[in-house]
Amino acid sequence: MTAEAMEAGPGEGAAADADPSLSGRGRGPGEDRPLRIALLTYKGNPFCGGQGVYVRHLSRELARLGHTVEVIGSQPYPVLDEGEGLAGLSLTELPSLDLYRQPDPFRTPGRDEYRDWIDALEVGTMWTGGFPEPLTFSLRARRHLRARRGEFDVIHDNQTLGYGLLGDMGAPLVTTIHHPITVDRQLELDAAEGWQRRASVRRWYAFTRMQKRVARRLPSVLTVSGTSRQEIVDHLRVRDSRIHVVHIGADTDLFSPDPAVRQVPGRIVTTSSADVPLKGLVFLVEALAKVRTEHPGAHLVVVGKRAEDGPVAQAIERYGLEGAVEFVKGISDAELVDLVRSAEVACVPSLYEGFSLPAAEAMATGTPLVATTGGAIPEVAGPDGETCLAVPPGDAGALAAALNRLLGDPGLRARLGTAGRARVLERFTWARAAQGTVAHYREAMAHAAGRTSGGPAAPDRSAPGAGRPAATSSLPPAAPAQDADEEVVVANRESRATC
């Protein structure tokens, strides 16, 4: 058993809002049996971006609880853990055309690569400036799951929110929404300069209209923080009673203190998967320039790909920081952990996060944290001055002041590092996340069984258009799956809705 599993304790409710009855009290015969779980993810990179990390760690802990977990994913394919207790964990590859792969993103496939109409839809959406993967993966997943009806007890979608996942797929559906992508869209629009750039951003994020429509029709939504829960209500207009918070966390066996790792004086480490406004990296670069006036040896290591152009590259050049900012990518888990351990300070400068795994992971190593108050970060990082130093998002001056304070005070670094580790062990582990998730799987299964025996569930009257005649709806009814020809018509019509 892992350390975090032992720390979670047997039968503890991991879901932040789970009823204690979901943990096992009052179930009928056979309701504690291991589950057969299909875990869907349209992007699975476990080293860059929260979705892949979520799938990797949650699938491992679900398998350790004794469930059979089949991860069904597209490129970049998930990398799953192996080892004792993970015999029930497997990966099924559901390939796309991989249009955004390196080193040739936005590529045009060869004629022999096209397999069906979904491939043509994927390419056509990309050619017109849209992002097709949530829709096309959902259509491929629907076809795959329909062909395997009866093999799964529950289907868990990891934020695809595509039209293909509506209707009967042969098992109850539970969906995780980490945070509404509409938040990312608005931040990028706010930062866009010129009407052409704004038009491009709107077209790229056109799939969020589909995600809004799908989210409002989902029977059970999981999310990772109270902040994300409120954002889902406000942005996606999902009924609050359908949303359940299950906190995620750090792999506390891997991300742990190690006194043998030498700290590098002046080292600040951060994680930024892309040069986008949401991540706030440009403010950290500006803050570093200020910090170096007091601590000339201060330098920044960014876990992520370096953009050759863009706001961050321009800021590094403007402040003369070429030798003080290093980007690393493609490193192993062990290398990542040692990098975080070697830093005097970890920093999360994001303008918004639905949870912030980098914050939890840094705290788990005992590395003191400077973090903004954007989105759900305070839920993870804790109170200012107790488990971290907290600053307003988008404020380079406040970031610099907090970094200067920590770099100049070894006692404060030690105190915050110890308190941060304790907070993660108490609240944010993957073992707890798996327990809470299973509780909601069983709740969804029980609800679906009751609906089958007692008639259809009531419509969501809180959603726009609820209760209108079917002819005026922008979506097909959530009914048994169409045949192939009907499916083409539905997908073509709905894909236009994202334009």
From TrEMBL:
Residues 1-20, 469-482 have a biased composition (Low complexity). The keyword Glycosyltransferase applies. Residues 1-30, 447-499 are annotated as: Disordered. Residues 267-422 form the Glycosyl transferase family domain. It comes from the Bacteria. This is Glycosyltransferase family 4 protein. Residues 49-253 form the Glycosyltransferase subfamily 4-like N-terminal domain. It holds the Pfam family Glycos_transf_1. Keywords: Glycosyltransferase, Transferase. SUPFAM superfamilies: UDP-Glycosyltransferase/glycogen phosphorylase (SSF53756).
